[in-house]
Amino acid sequence: MLPVIALVGRPNVGKSTLFNRLTRRRDAIVADFAGLTRDRQYGELQWEEQRFICIDTGGLSGDEEGIDGAMAEQSLLAIEEADLVLFLVDCKAGLLPADMVIAKHLRTTEKQVLVVANKVDGHDPDVVIAPFYEMGLGDIHATTATHGRGVNLLMQEVVRFLPAEEEEETGEVEATSEEEYNGASEHGTLENAIDTADDLTESAIKMAIVGRPNVGKSTLVNRMLGEERVVVYDEPGTTRDSIYINYERHGRPYTIIDTAGIRRRKNISLTVEKFSIVKTLQSIEDANVVVLLLDASEGVVDQDLHLMGHVIDSGRALVVALNKWDGLESEFKEYVRNELERRLRFVDFADIHFISALHGTGVGGLYKSIEKAFASATDRFSTNHLTNVLQMAVKEHQPPVVRGHRIKLRYAHAGGHNPPIIVIHGNQTSDIPGHYVRYLEKTFRRVLDLHGTPIRLQFRTSDNPFANKDLSDKQRVRQRRLATSRSYKSDKKPK
């Protein structure tokens, strides 16, 4: 296993900024806004020849209530997982009572702790770090995470404190009775959340859980993982960042992505929410399969349809899940089913599930549709097979006649996958009407047995071999014809 570093401290001391600096990525949202990070964010970093796992956490204050209490639980779990804790303090704010509360807790954990005095730029380091020695946690390391000042010296100390990378032990872990509860045994052994991207094979399925705010996305993520991995609170907008979590189920690797809810543009006022939505849209692009979560108690609303359209335009495989299905009256359930049939005709290729993320009803069935959609989106087809399907479709229903000439479709080949792209060659392909394109899409989907993924058809018109001939050649042909005609006429003149 890789050594683990946890970044802890009060809100807005620069934990996410340092996390992005160490991992050399922008996975964590950074803004001048206290309490922005709420869930544990994992990333891998490498310093010289050694690799580490770094955990970004939410801010601790010591008097958390409501959603802040759930955030604090995530931070405390990160401390328990860590081999080394980097305790960040703010040089500009100085030593505050909340810093003393955190220091007291860290002393009781018996963890290795390095105090990092951040935001030291513009100050005399010796002066601004002096008050923090009162916490009794040893030496203070002055840094400025935004500019990288002092980070190299800090990492030299980290390497000295951390143990060397350990080889992962093999062996199976027996399922506990808690894992068996509500079908959680289907999830298999949940690997520790510090598993990194290189623990996953190329066949890993990336699935993004998306939907409107407060539809139960984080609850579903926790249910599929079998643990309280992300913050769940009865408040819209709880999740602000896209959280990537790697795990295994039945020996197969997955990456599940918990995303922030997407509202209508007119309802967005906070700049932070705009960044969250951008991260969600990026997660959709990065995923193989998107699980679009709807609130069954509200039925299908226009924003759900907009999200579906964006997923299809992105070319991602789609699985639709209606959450909070338990407890609805049978009449309302029938109304929702009719609405789904009426309004979701344009995504008839996607499987629809009725679930309860809170109680676990129907959650296990999502995996079958996810795996089927992933297999369809990434399947490879030979040119011969696609051409045979095209010829069969043309034989059953020929293309229309345009300007006195029938459109001819000759052969097809694969142009890509995720989503499947089929390139069709022929004549006058730019004149193919929309209804015939839809006919070809349904034929390819039916014959190739594709489920849960959109199909992209691209048409190529064959080049006319005489289109680019030099004009002088045509002129010579015309002159020869005219010469032959004159000679024939002169022979016919009477003497």
Note down, in words, how this protein is organized.
By secondary structure, the chain is an alpha/beta fold. The chain has three domains: 4-161, Rossmann fold, CATH 3.40.50.300; 179-373, Rossmann fold (3-Layer(aba) Sandwich); 379-495, K homology (KH) domain (GMP Synthetase, Chain A, domain 3, 2-Layer Sandwich), CATH 3.30.300. Helix content is 35%, strand content 21%. It is built from 14 helices and 17 strands. It has helices at 15-23, 67-81, 97-109, 125-129, 151-161, 177-180, 217-225, 271-286, 302-314, 330-343, 366-378, 383-396, 434-448, 471-492, and strands at 4-9, 41-47, 50-56, 84-90, 112-118, 140-142, 205-211, 243-249, 252-258, 289-295, 317-323, 351-354, 401-402, 405-406, 408-416, 421-427, 456-461. The strands form four sheets. The protein has a six-stranded mixed beta sheet with strand order 2-3-1-4-5-6, with helices on both faces. Strands 8-9-7-10-11-12 form a six-stranded mixed beta sheet, sandwiched between helices. A three-stranded mixed beta sheet has the order 15-16-17. Strand 4, helix 3 and strand 5 form a beta-alpha-beta unit. Helix 12 packs across helix 13 (434-448). The longest helix is centred in the last third of the chain and has 22 residues, at 471-492. The chain is elongated and about 100 Å long. The model is unreliable at 168-201, 233-237 and 486-493 (pLDDT under 50).
Attribute tags:
Rossmann fold, 3 domains, disordered C terminus, 21% strand, GMP Synthetase, Chain A, domain 3, alpha/beta, 6-stranded mixed β-sheet, 495 residues, 14 helices
